[in-house]
Design the sequence.
């Protein structure tokens, strides 16, 4: 295969057969394109007899996210593939394995996760996952710590920063999360019934200040190699196992961004449960599991991150008394602020979440939207004052009560 | 000229003649190598009849700063040349013009500043420069503002960050400023008589915490394209004019670092005046000019930066109420901390300043060293509490008084 072109099913099968020792000689391979076609082609290739399978992902040179197409660098396939390899190296049980790749064709051949469910869908159905907080806390702690100056030679880290400069994908985040929701923009997307909320976002000066500070952090802090888009649609899950996929937004940014993404998506689902669980006790039980899991994600991250720091930090001043505590507090405050920004953009911005948008009943959907916006705003407005994760519990419960919702 | 090799005088003259329209056809050109040979060759080429002259600077593939040679990337010549061009574009009267360059040969041909004096030498001689604060304040404000996300398209800024990743030169700063002075290191260099001060630096936990925070900022904040080594040896000056040279340490870092460098070098000279000015009234007058100029550098920077922000900011949230004030306060606190770190390393670290090291009288030299260290520590220990530049005045005066020195 020479110059870049979109793969055919036949070419995908040829790539699949080329993985050394994976498929049997002469195996009959079935190939289906299963992507949504917005940003990437995704081929699922399966040995019809043994059932063994792989995924081939190919980046497309555009995104269809804004109605018409938006050009996107194919280099993002290399960035995603390198990020997957680094994350797999650091958390082999939590990230799919890359079998082979072709950067010119923007192609990555990787482990298939067909046995897993997309976490967002499972959460909408009211499922809970007892190991999720442990798994994702460890993933975040290990991938952030080991790619930071705390654990890397600063020269090697700078070369890694350079390889992960990701302007096209960062621009999507900068526009959709840190700009559009706070002004009139054709990219915004919300029902007329919450125009009052949207207008309030555009005129809230205190909120604009905090979002400006969060935006600045996203633009200027090369703390660690982030996943960059760690929502529950990028997490494949079973009762026992968790896998993090799709790091095409990977770049060096502020650690709190990845943690905030996980918390935001748990809390969006919490708001969405207003429209999903008919039985109130059942609904409240699930919402409380989601809230507790948000806190646990942080706690597991913090415990693991502190342990890694104590055992593996190479920064010559890492053990200065008080430094670790101040560092953790900064990450917590950032995580809370970013969580809020990510909740708001999923309600009024371009790209939404099924947890809320697919709620069948209009009134319940509106209640969920208003609760999500209120929680998002409260997280942003309080993030610089927070010194413990318990504050999130308090903010969510107080905001819900103020809105007449009971958790 | 093909592959990299150190230039000869004859080759330098050929390069000089190739600048279109600069030297007369057939002019007799005199060439002298005037560098100190540590990091670069510097050729001064002059038309013996008209007196017109240029400088040719060539990077060497090593540094002699640590006794034996230390390999250094030749790419730093490209970085220095691109930084000079950006800074000249933004401040044409404050930066020498680049006439031509050859990245493969690590060569830059540029405006000669033979009419200027190196500011450090002039300050040691007790000279004052009434326009210096205005000039350097404008240089810092314009170069930092226009290379930041406040004024650039974030995509173009990211590509610029990528071009200015400068691991070799940053490592020098990271080791010599943010590491060695706080531990036993062969790189450290100070007289036995101040061993008590050196030991105090190695055991001061509160200081280590603040230096850890400053080091982290140096490692992780891509706020603006810094000069990166803005001491008074990188500033050429006359009564009327100021020129900033040698940005080979340029990289994207925290804005306060450049401002702190200027302030540190003014305050090092202030401490050094203990050994230079015999007449006490004269000494105190000069020290007070240096202190006032430190404050003025900040004030000019701040006024110009705020004006540029009001008139030219493109960041969509730049005008959020309160954001500019918080931003300026962060830069001030960083500048004060970095100033302190730079003072300390010039007393106990590898590389010193003539302002203090060449003081003839040993007792006076020691007094100057102790004053510089005390001021440096006080700046670092107080930096996170500072909210106005007047605090520097207070810190310097109080520290001097505590040491029995009168300003």
Sequence:
């Amino acid at each position: 295969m020479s110059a870049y072109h979109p793969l055919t099913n036949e070419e995908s099968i040829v790539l699949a057969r080329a993985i050394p020792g994976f498929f049997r000689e002469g195996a009959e391979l079935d190939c289906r394109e299963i992507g949504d076609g917005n940003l990437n082609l995704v081929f699922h290739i399966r040995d019809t007899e043994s059932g063994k399978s792989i995924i081939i992902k190919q980046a497309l040179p555009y995104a269809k996210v804004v109605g018409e197409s938006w050009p996107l660098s194919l280099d993002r396939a290399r960035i995603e593939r390198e990020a997957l390899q680094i994350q797999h190296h650091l958390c082999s049980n939590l990230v799919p394995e890359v079998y082979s790749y072709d950067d010119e064709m923007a192609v990555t051949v990787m482990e298939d996760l067909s046995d897993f469910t997309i976490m967002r869908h499972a959460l909408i159905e009211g499922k809970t996952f007892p190991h999720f907080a442990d798994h994702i806390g460890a993933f975040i702690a290990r991938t952030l710590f080991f790619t930071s100056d705390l654990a890397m030679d600063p020269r090697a880290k700078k070369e890694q920063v350079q390889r992960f400069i990701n302007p096209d994908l960062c621009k999507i985040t900068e526009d959709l999360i840190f700009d559009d929701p706070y002004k009139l923009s054709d990219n915004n997307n919300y029902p007329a019934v919450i125009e009052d909320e949207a207008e309030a976002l555009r005129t809230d000066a205190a909120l604009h200040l905090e979002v400006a500070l969060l935006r600045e952090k996203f633009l200027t802090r090369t703390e660690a190699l982030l996943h960059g888009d760690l929502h529950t649609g990028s997490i494949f899950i079973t009762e026992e196992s968790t896998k993090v996929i799709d790091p095409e937004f990977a770049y060096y940014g502020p650690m709190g961004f990845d943690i905030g993404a996980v918390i935001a998506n748990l809390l969006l689902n919490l708001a969405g449960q207003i429209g999903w669980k008919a039985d109130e006790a059942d609904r409240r039980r699930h919402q409380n599991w989601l809230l507790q899991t948000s806190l646990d994600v942080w706690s597991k991250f913090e415990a693991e991150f502190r342990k890694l720091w104590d055992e593996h930090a190479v920064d010559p001043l890492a053990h200065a008394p008080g430094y670790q505590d101040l560092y953790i507090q900064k990450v917590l405050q950032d995580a809370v602020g970013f969580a809020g920004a990510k909740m708001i953009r999923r309600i009024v911005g371009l790209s939404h979440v099924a947890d809320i948008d697919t709620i069948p009943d209009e009134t319940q959907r509106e209640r969920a939207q208003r609760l999500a916006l209120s929680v998002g705003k409260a997280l942003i407005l309080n993030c610089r004052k927070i010194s413990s994760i318990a504050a999130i519990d308090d903010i969510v419960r107080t905001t819900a009560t103020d809105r007449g919702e009971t958790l």
